[in-house]
Amino acid sequence: MNVIKLTDVTKVYKIGAVETPALRGLTLNIEDGEFTAIVGPSGSGKTTVLQMIGCLDRPTKGSVEVKGQDVVHLSDNQRAELRKGTIGFIFQFFALIPVLTAYENVELPLVLTGVKASARRERVSELLQAVGLSDRAHHRPDQLSGGEKQRVAVARALAVDPVLVLADEPTANLDTENGNQVMEIMRRLNGDMGTTFVFATHDPRVIPFARRTVELRDGRVSDV
Questions:
Q1: Beta strand 69-70 with 220-221: parallel, antiparallel or unpaired?
Q2: What is the pLDDT of residues 114-161, one digit of tens each?
């Protein structure tokens, strides 16, 4: 089953009279349970693809479907609701809330979606254990290493049991050892939970972790 279906997607950014094409008729299908890397040089369209899939932007032309639903014509509120319950995000710069502990950062999506306290405790504890951070639960981000911060971000992305997790350059700010640890954890959780992972990267060190690689070139899927 296709979790993601992009058909002939074009995205053109306009600044004044200047138009910059980011995607040029891109077509891409991603099936349930995949662990897919979107690769390519800077400017190839990697981040724009994730923004389309994550309902963070709309295409200039073309169709974007998530779980069989056309998301292009949804209202902003409908897109936000879809994101909240269906898609988890992992960012290059971690995007943790600095005044919250690791536990509270992972718990926050559950609070926002109205999950009861007892179920929150069980879910957060399970996820922190899964990423190897049970002993760091009550540390704030400024008390964690870069690798630990990204592992918290992975746990937070999985908090609401999303269908899909999107990661934009998840190892860009990590050294090789920590980057490899984060990728191993993501790949293990993909297998254990069946959650679809799509990550964008230009880092050749982490591409071998992918079970499928999609190369972009000039806003299109490369045939090379």
A1: unpaired
A2: 999 999 999 999 999 999 999 999 999 999 999 999 999 999 999 999
Residue 174 DSSP code: S
**pLDDT tens by residue, 1-45:** 789 999 999 999 988 888 899 999 999 999 999 999 999 988 889
What percentage of the chain carries pLDDT values higher than 90?
A: 80
Round to whole Å and give the CA distance between 57 and 32.
Answer: 22
Q: Phi/psi at 197 (nearest 5 deg)?
A: -115, 135
Of 170, 122, 120, 165, nearest in space to 149 by CA: 170
- List CB contacts of 193: < 8 A, sequence separation 6 or more: 158, 161
Q: Position of tokens 């891409």?
A: 28
Distance between CA atoms of residues 210 and 206, nearest Å: 8
Dihedral angle computed from the Cα positions of residues 63, 71, 55 and 200, in that order, rounded to the nearest 10 degrees: -40
E strands present in the chain: 2-15, 18-31, 35-39, 61-66, 69-70, 87-90, 164-168, 196-201, 212-217, 220-221
Phi (first) and psi of residue 31, to 5 degrees:
-90, 160
Look up tokens 């992009």; give the residue: 6
